[in-house]
Amino acid sequence: MILAPYMKLSWVMGVVLACSTIMAGNLQDITLKDINGKPTSLKAYEGKVLLVVNVASKCGLTPQYKSLEAVHQKYKDKGFSVLGFPCNDFGSQEPGTNEDIKEFCSTKYNVTFPMFDKLHVKGPERHALYTALTGEGSAFPGDVKWNFGKFLIGRDGKVLKRFEPKVTPDSAEVTQAIEAALAAK
After folding, report:
1. I need a labelling partner for 125 at 20 to 30 A (CA). Which of 88, 95, 146, 162 fits?
2. Which of 19, 59, 87, 105 is catalytic?
3. What kind of architecture, by CATH, is found in domain 3-183?
4. Per-residue model confidence as pLDDT tens digits over 112-166
5. What b/e readout covers 124-143, taking b as 16+ CB neighbours within 10 angstroms?
6. What does pTM read for this prediction?
7. What distance in Å separates the CA atoms of residue 66 and residue 108, rounded to the nearest whole number?
8. Which residues on adjacent β-strands are paired with residue 83?
9. CA-to-CA distance for 50 and 159, rounded, in angstroms?
């Protein structure tokens, strides 16, 4: 049968797509480590609206830490949290250890939002979280372009929006999306 190879290929592609979709839908099950090296996952934030951001200490966009903290403070009592994921994938702009990163964030920007273990957001070592956020089966596929890329995740654990690095956390675009996500039940 001539169609048999095409049917098999179609089935394989369907399975790959389904697995990618499932993975993108289960962000809360992905294993992570907090900035202190303690195992955790996004399950710890179940039911909250989240802004996941890849951050760096030596980037031209590093001052966004100030507005990330302001947005976190503004909405944290309404079921929202910023989550910072240090990344050294862009211009080696996050060269420090987790301890260095914690010290920098707390002394320079008074960061109180949760920070996580340094990870990769692109390339062959890309962390499973970023594979789910940016992979083929995600709602917003495509590599993160630079430090301070942002993903808004709804209370149900699904990605609602993606904001490029130069879109500031306190912009009208981000604020409206956060408020809409918080208003959704």
Report:
1. 162
2. 59
3. 3-Layer(aba) Sandwich (3.40)
4. 999 999 999 999 999 999 999 999 889 999 999 999 999 999 999 999 999 999 9
5. eebbebbbbbbbebbbeeee
6. 0.86
7. 9
8. 52
9. 9
